[in-house]
Amino acid sequence: MTNHDLETQLRQAYQGADVEVRSSSMSATVLLARKEAYSRRQRLSFPQFLSMQIRFIGLKVWAVQGASLLAVCWLLSQLFGQGYWKDPQSVAGLLACLSLLTFMTAPPFLYRSIRYRMQEVEAAARFSSVRLLMARLIIIGIGDATLLSGILLTAAVKTALLPSSSVVSVAFPFLLASSGCLYLLGHVCPRQFLAGSMGLCGFLLMVLSLAQRHFHLFFRLSPGWIGVCTLLIVFCCHQFHYLFHNCAYAEMQVI
Amino acid sequence: MTREEKLMIRIGQGDMDAVDELIGLLYPEILRYCLWHAPNPGLAEDAAQETFLKAIRYYDRYVHKGKCKAFLYRIAANTCVDMYRKMDIGELSIEDIPAELPSEESGFERIHADLNFHQQIRSLPPEQQEILLLRFGQELTLRQIAQVTGVPLRTVQSRLRAALKKLKSQLEKEEHCDKS
Predict the structure, then answer these.
(1) How many angstroms separate the CA atoms of B164 and B159, rounded?
(2) What are the boundaries of each domain within chain B?
(3) Which of A149, A242, B86, B149 lies 20 to 30 angstroms, CA to CA, from B135?
(4) For residue A6, is it within any domain?
(5) A60 lies in which domain range?
């Protein structure tokens, strides 16, 4: 007996009998599988949800953030001329203000649901308000990170300010405003969020504008500033954790 | 890319017609496999149904790398193991499932009795029986069998070779006895 004969015999043995497929059981399988596929289609993973949100609002958010920054830079150059960038004394303050202005583009987007009275619909939708908030914060964060990197690069190329001072000038006000606004997001009624966060940013902007002439003396990279920025980052992370795990953010949307 | 892999991709894109087509294409094959492992035809139908439902439920674990059939067979094998566990027959692994012939209703036993293969196949170790079933009953490639059973390709090859060798020697011995 050759191997081929044996294999043929095995095939005949295993496949010789026809399998009786009952149409009723196959139809039931099709029906249940369709239901399963339909419910699977309804479930969106967070990356899919995020990419959808990027298509819906991300491009608009980034366009507005970029346009706002360009407008501010154009206005400053018109008001003070190109020489403004050369003066290290004024540049530190200017970078801090630009960083705050970049941040200030975020709260209106986080307030959109309230503005268009969509918060109840979002809270009742199959995706949770918290997931939506996380997606929005990531989108805004990506925009902010890109713009701040652009600001830092411009500062490194165009100004006489030390790169380390530029980093502190940009990071500290941004982190301070972020900490305050994240705290407000988790602790105040959504209707008061925009006013509260814009008030906070306005106050910080006013302080920075008044004291900008002295910034270059303070904003030098040192262990103290690294510690302060680290503390602010930790506070931001804590607020994120609070928002996504402990806070009644979803319930607050429908109050 | 095979037809079933194209269908799996369409299912991932939310195409409901692809679900019907895939079941129409592979249901008889999966049912045949389950008939070999389930205690009776009714439970084999349940196992085949559960296989397709799980394939859709756990679609995210499926990777489009020519593993569609292996993915389904793996689920079918695990479903049959689960079925035995639920029936409290005892702890079994895929390799432990006795490749026993299905009940008389399926007709397989009669065919095996006719061919005098029944005893010889049953005398093989369970993991070799499983490989013979997948190779000659289900026409899977050795690579697919390796993916279904979760053992290296080399092991599949050696188990298949050993099973064929043993079966051949048993048949030849029997033939010799008949002649003498």
Answers:
(1) 9
(2) 3-179
(3) B86
(4) no
(5) 45-253
